[in-house]
UniProtKB/TrEMBL annotation:
Gene3D superfamilies: YycH protein, domain 2 (3.30.310.160)
Species lineage: Bacteria, Bacillati, Bacillota, Bacilli, Bacillales
The protein, known as: Regulatory protein YycH domain-containing protein
Domain Regulatory protein YycH: 3-420
Length: 425
């Protein structure tokens, strides 16, 4: 009888211990089970769709040189741009030779020779270009970053020339074998004959007449702070909330932090974890950045890859959003239109993006003309007195309204001092 009582008492003690353990693990204030936290982190909300790096790499402009000082410009997603770029991507380039830029008369080639010039903004690593173009591996320039590809016909020459320009500024690589004939190049150039004519002013191209663009009001929705916490923190339940004096909100798990500016619907995520030592690889960081966005927010819209900085200590990556054929500007007054990231050895240390995204199909449009010709030239000359003008392109200036986003067509002017000015409002 005594042994039986001991057994019952022991059983009660064991059961009591299990109950106590249950409450300690599963019912502490402000926490959930480790299993539940793990599931919450892995099974994040299906926010935006995923994308592939190949869809994010394409030229910001396509310049057609028709000879006789005549030029035109095609922008992404336009009909002739897509037609020509698709054909070029399917043709092979190999047998590269390094040449000095000083030995070429670029103004003469640009003005007199029929050709196609693709510009890639701040440049794309060769290994990334090889994902979208048929560029044969070549140790001569595999470590380069290319910001321009120029394919042209030379007088009395039976083959087309293809030049790949390095961002280093003084080096160009010519493909010894180009899977494009002289007739191919001329056919592509002929697509621009009846398009808006452009003239060269210094290093920028000015349309000789006004340019038509669409002004749009687009319906919007936004991610919640809870969705971003769920996506970015291993266990969102242990994050602390801090209210800043400027009105911004900070959520932190003592290691990572998420700052949200509610008035602009803009978020900034930081993870200061020390990266592994080793050489910086822009290509690997680009792939890591695309994977990160796929897993933490997704791609609600069309984006293009941009690199900034020298890439020697860390990779600074920008994904520029497009509406139709033109980029949406990120301004000081309203942050929108870009995802900005910093990576070190494939580890994301900062991630900035808007919480707002456009809703497909919910929009109204009307046509607007941007100035061209002498009127635009006068505006450019006036801005040039402040700082040399490096680039000119059509863009959209976003304006947040109560339930929509207004996209206003403008000319964006990039100055040598790094500032972006808008004209044509």
């Amino acid at each position: 009888m005594k042994e039986r009582m001991k057994s019952i008492l022991l059983l009660l003690l064991v059961l009591g211990s299990l109950v106590q353990s249950y409450y300690l693990i599963y019912r502490l204030p402000g926490s959930d089970s480790a299993a539940k936290a793990m599931n919450n982190y892995i099974k994040t909300d299906n926010m935006g769709p995923q994308d592939r790096v190949e869809n994010l790499i394409y030229p910001d402009k396509m310049l057609l040189h028709m000879g006789g000082g005549k030029h035109t410009v095609f922008y992404p997603n336009s009909t002739f741009y897509k037609l020509i770029y698709t054909r070029i991507k399917g043709r092979g380039f190999e047998g590269f030779q390094r040449r000095s830029m000083e030995n070429m008369d670029w103004n003469k080639i640009r003005s007199e020779n029929p050709g196609i010039e693709l510009t890639f903004g701040s440049g794309v690593p060769v290994s990334m270009l090889q994902r979208v173009m048929q560029i044969q591996p070549d140790s001569l320039f595999e470590a380069e970053r290319i910001n321009r590809i120029w394919i042209y016909n030379a007088p009395n020459d039976s083959k087309a020339h293809a030049l790949f320009f390095s961002t280093e500024g003084d080096v160009v690589y010519e493909a010894g074998k180009v899977d494009l004939t002289v007739q191919d190049v001329q056919q592509h150039v002929d697509f621009g004959k009846n398009w808006t004519p452009y003239t060269l002013l210094g290093s920028i191209y000015l349309p000789e007449k006004p340019v038509d663009m669409v002004e749009a009001n687009v319906g919007i929705d936004s991610y919640t702070v809870g969705q971003m916490q769920q996506s970015l923190f291993f266990d969102p339940s242990i994050t602390r909330y801090i209210q800043e004096k400027d009105g911004s909100e900070i959520y932190t798990d003592s290691k990572r932090s998420l700052q949200v500016r509610q008035e602009q619907k803009w978020m900034s995520y930081t993870d200061p974890a020390a990266p592994p030592s080793g050489e910086v690889s822009s290509s690997k960081d680009i792939l890591a950045a695309v994977d990160f966005v796929n897993e933490h927010g997704g791609w609600n819209g069309v984006y293009r890859l941009e690199l900034s900085g020298n890439g020697k200590e860390q990779s600074q990556i920008v994904f520029q959003q497009y509406f139709g054929s033109y980029p949406v500007l990120d301004t000081m007054n309203f942050h929108y239109g870009t995802m900005k990231m910093e990576l070190q050895q494939g580890n994301v240390s900062t991630y900035e993006r808007s919480l707002i995204y456009m809703q497909a199909g919910q929009q109204t449009k009307r046509m607007k003309k941007l100035p061209g010709g002498a009127e635009l030239k006068a505006m450019i000359m006036a801005l040039g007195k402040e700082s040399p003008v490096e680039d000119l392109y059509p863009a959209y200036l976003p304006e947040l309204e109560s339930k929509s986003l207004k996209l206003i067509p403008v000319w964006a002017v990039r100055l040598a001092n790094g500032q972006i000015r808008t004209i044509g409002l």
